[in-house]
Amino acid sequence: MKFVAGEGRHPLRKISPRHLSFPAILFQRIVITLLSSEEDLTSLIIRFQEFTEYDDVRYYIMKTSLKELKDMEDFSEVFLLNTFTMLEQLSMPSTEEEVLTNFMSKLPDSNSKLKLNSLKEHKKLFTTVWLELLRKKLSTKLYKNALLVLPEKVIPHMTSPLLLSDFLTHSYNIGGAISLLALNGLFILINRHNLNYPDFYQKLYTLFDPSVFHVKYRARFFYLADLFLTSTHLPAYLVAAFAKKLSRLSLTVPPAGCMVIIPFICNLLIRHPSCQVLINRAETEGVPSDLFLMEEKDPAKCNALESSLWEIKALQSHYYHEVAILAQKINHPLPTQELEMAKYLDMSTEELITGEMSKALHHVPLAFEVPTDFLGSGLKDLWQL
After folding, report:
1. From residue 57, how far is each of 15, 84, 117, 222, 337 by CA, in Å?
2. What span, in angstroms and rounded, lies between the C-alpha atoms of 204 and 179?
3. CB 88 within 8 A of CB 129
4. What is the predicted pLDDT for the residue at 13?
């Protein structure tokens, strides 16, 4: 890169002040080498990130990457991994000024109108190259990593984020961990860019199953789910459906899962006082009389509002005392402020066990009579061979 910077500052041939002196041919060779189809160069590409802050370097990285994605016929997994890593490292300008001036090479004349120093053209090229990459057949690991970076590193810099709607809705419908990771990006399109997706909450409802408490992205999923359900304009039947389904799941999940479920449900009831009938209804006391349909995928048809949260009452007898203490919150009037969920999201069974093992044991004095023999005097008289 020293040769690129040197030739950019001191061109080998005379160039008009209105044109850019960036050594594009030399730099493209470097980028093509980094986008190898045979060798994983992710560690080297990460080191290359320090140069992507320059506007001219960033532009030619995107231009070369797009050309390689379009021209190459047989895409190896290594090539897609290197390309994804390269695009992930791009540092898009934070400025809102249309004219870019942070160049590694010699700056062109201020009156010259080039695509390279236009923020609009950078965003347009950035959008095109990412869409081209996402059209390729990605491995499962790379697919998940792409979904992770889209909300914060890609969507904010796209000319039209709605171009990702097909990719994200397809990912959301796949199920499993893929659906969990597509949640954030899809919600951003709905909330900020007016994407019309009427089945969003119905699909979110189906994602709540026992397996979600054992996946790697559990904390992220519940954080986002809590965010999606913060609106006070959601209908009562929908909120009641989520609360009831989580309540039923609490009977089978590990203690760490219960520690997330209980404050989650309490926050739903605080936001929607009309759903507090679920903890004040006395006539529904057991599973045989519970009208809730656990297997129903449509929250509007699961009869949640006609049920009660008797499962939370049952958790008050849980073998883990912290769960039992949390469950007792429904015995008292709910607070006006929501409960803090952050400390429960990353909690695991191992952490719970470690916490209990580290507690100091208190020896309690007991009054007892020391036995004089194995059976004791009372049983010894009754024992006959």
Report:
1. 19, 17, 11, 39, 50
2. 9
3. no
4. 57
